[in-house]
Design a protein that fits this description.
Structural class: alpha+beta
Number of strands: 8
Order of helices and strands: EEHEEEHEHEE
Helix content: 25-40%
Strand order of the largest sheet: 1-2-3-4-5-6-8-7
Oligomer: single chain
CATH class of one domain: Alpha Beta
Shape: globular
CATH architecture of one domain: 3-Layer(aba) Sandwich
Radius of gyration: 14 Å
Largest sheet: 8 strands, mixed
Distance between the termini: 20 Å
Number of helices: 3
């Protein structure tokens, strides 16, 4: 997928520059939330067969990433993050649309996500894409630092 010089593609292996983007994501979320409320999947888990992981690039440089874990009954959005170079350019929306399209093709009934309340822009993006608040799912528990959202596909 290409739009306005931005390419979005599935990447099965985490390249060093994508790892650096994920490290920036870790630091960003560590500043917002306490460790027990950060539910970041390990980078190595993003290369698992049940994960579809997308990378957004501008002129070949990784500027955003995110994917979903196929749980069979649903897909769980994981590690969506846009670095400073990609912000304000709809990179998050393009990544999410690629994830939604792929999950629909995989015939998943819905996508779910956990996010923190200190990210109003992300919450607004998810709502604009049809996600609605729901309760905890999977191994998650109620947490004042967690919001749970779901979109029927």
């Amino acid at each position: 997928m290409t739009e306005t010089g931005i390419t979005i593609a599935i990447e099965e292996k985490i390249a060093p520059e994508v790892k650096a983007l994920l490290d920036a994501s870790d630091a960003f979320f560590a500043d917002l939330y306490p460790p027990e409320s950060n539910h970041l999947v390990d980078v190595s888990a993003l290369e698992a067969a049940d994960v579809t992981f997308f990378v957004a690039r501008i002129s070949g440089r990784a500027v955003g990433c995110g994917g979903y874990l196929n749980k069979g009954q649903y897909g769980e959005i994981k590690r969506l993050f846009v670095g400073s170079e990609g912000r304000g350019r709809k990179v998050g929306r393009l990544l999410m649309q690629a994830i939604i399209d792929h999950a629909q093709q995989a015939k998943l009934p819905c996508l779910k996500l956990e996010m923190g309340p200190s990210q109003p822009e992300a919450e607004a993006l998810y709502q604009s894409l049809g996600f609605a608040e729901t309760g905890p799912f999977g191994d998650y528990r109620e947490d004042p630092y967690s919001l749970f959202m779901e979109k029927t596909l």
